[in-house]
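yo, BRISC and BRCA1-A complex member 2 is done. seq:
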Amino acid sequence: MTMANEGVPPIIAAQLNYLLSHSPFPMRVEQMWSGSKNEPWLDRFTLLIPFCLDYIKWDVMFNVQSPLSAPDVIFALDDEKFPPFLLSCGGDHTKSPLHILNNWNSRDPSRLLSFILQLRECYSAYQRKRVGEVDDERVKFEINTMLAREGIEMSLSSSAEKPEEVKFAVPLLDTNIHSMVPGCPWRHQQKIYLQVIYPIRKYQSAPSAPRLKLVSTPELRSLFSVEDVKLPTWLDGMCMAEYLPAVEDTLQMQVFGRKATVLVANGVFTFLVHFLIPLQFPKQQPTLILQSSQHFNAQGVPIRSPPLSEYPWSPRWELAEMALRIFEFLVEESSNFKKSCNEALQQR
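structure:
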């Protein structure tokens, strides 16, 4: 669900819509329902919040009979120790989730977002505390080696079906994706993460390599698949502080080194064409992004097209045939792009 309107009390819809449109990362509503059999209004919903390359689910419970009141939140059953942790979370009490609840202002549509973001920060601290208490010297060592890197999230998972695992989501900060993929006006910051999973083995003398996987944000995944990148080999005795620079170098060579930009003219209309060449080329065609050199938005930024990958293509064609088909596509698409640029200027 993207926006909440139909069946939702206006004062609650304002809070939820602000959250969905202003969150720094993509939250989603999984389901909505009414808390009263006698009221048709939808005043409760399950919120999916990205965390550590997964989602945590919290039930947000407003009360349609008291819409000016702050909501309650129900956490997952396996986070039963999180609510007590909240009582001591946060150094500045004026920014704590409990302070926001105690000073709830239903007429401020940003309150729900602020509340959820503060809860998420506390949840991250809660998971970090759980991981730090794990009886595994290797995990403790890895945490210490990665403390200098910002944005790392970690979580501890355990169940009756499988042994305990510690999962790290490590953002690859040296990879500035927005500057490397021109023409993509993403609303959320795009990142590539290295997912690192350590099984907890208290009595293992010779540690094995962790499970490693590259994961990107969904919008970035529509351009290329980082799962196809061949990761460097994990050597015996290695730690994450040694491994991460090699991963970033590999990304630079295998992914972000595969791009090109050309200047194209169709009559008096000139524009740039950015080619993003996938690892699967020529099995998979390049993604094209058009950027006008004559049209700019209100912020002075050149107008760009969305990523284009739906055009005739066959990996069996000769290279000359591939180039010709792209040229024919650009001839037709440039007219559409020029029209959309002119319309964008008229709407300013």
